[in-house]
Amino acid sequence: MTPVQLQTFSSLAIWIPLLFALVKLKTGEIKFRLFFVFLLFGALVDGFGLIIYYFLPHDLFNYHGIFQLFYLWFEALFFVWICFYFLEFNKRNKWRNILLIGFSGMFITEFILRIVISIPNNTFFAFIHSFFLVTSSFLSAFALLRIAEKRGEILRYSWFWILSGIFIYCFSSFFVDMLSYTAIGRGIWSIRVLANIIQYGFFVVGLLKINNAQ
């Protein structure tokens, strides 16, 4: 499978967990509703990119980059929020808010530099994305440990699978994002795409077990 075909498959694969999430949306949990919005946002942005690549002039990718950056910002906020939801320690809300504000500041800065001033991809942008992924890796790992401590049969708990997918994606992608502005990073970008597809697989398993989580 070529890199383009792999990316296309990844962009289409998100619709599988999205449709499962739509069916399960009646659960009413706030964290599950935000998870659905996260999937829907990603599906729309990826779908827009596919339409541009196959049917429209490629210079429209400049507009796609704007939507993609806003999606990455939302992804960062959602990952932090959902991981802290399962953590319990003193000043939890304070540290959660610090990370939410910090990531927001970094992505707003990137938006100004990349979109408004038109600065090309560089070390600073790579640092923002890799720092977010590393942080989310640690947070999701601690959240998984907390779930394991509180629940007996974790394999029957939907959020164990969803958080596992987030952990695998973040842990497998941070090194790629760190080198994204280099030829090496572009050469190994398929690793990130594969991690994304695996993440969707974990999401589907988690959604299939959503009734056990209620």
UniProtKB/TrEMBL annotation:
Transmembrane segments: 6-23, 35-56, 68-87, 99-117, 123-145, 157-176, 188-208
Source taxon at top rank: Bacteria
Protein name, UniProt field: YhhN-like protein
UniProtKB keywords: Membrane, Transmembrane, Transmembrane helix
Coiled coil: none
Keyword Membrane: yes
Native source species: Algoriphagus alkaliphilus
Presence of keyword Protease: no
Lineage of origin: Bacteria, Pseudomonadati, Bacteroidota, Cytophagia, Cytophagales
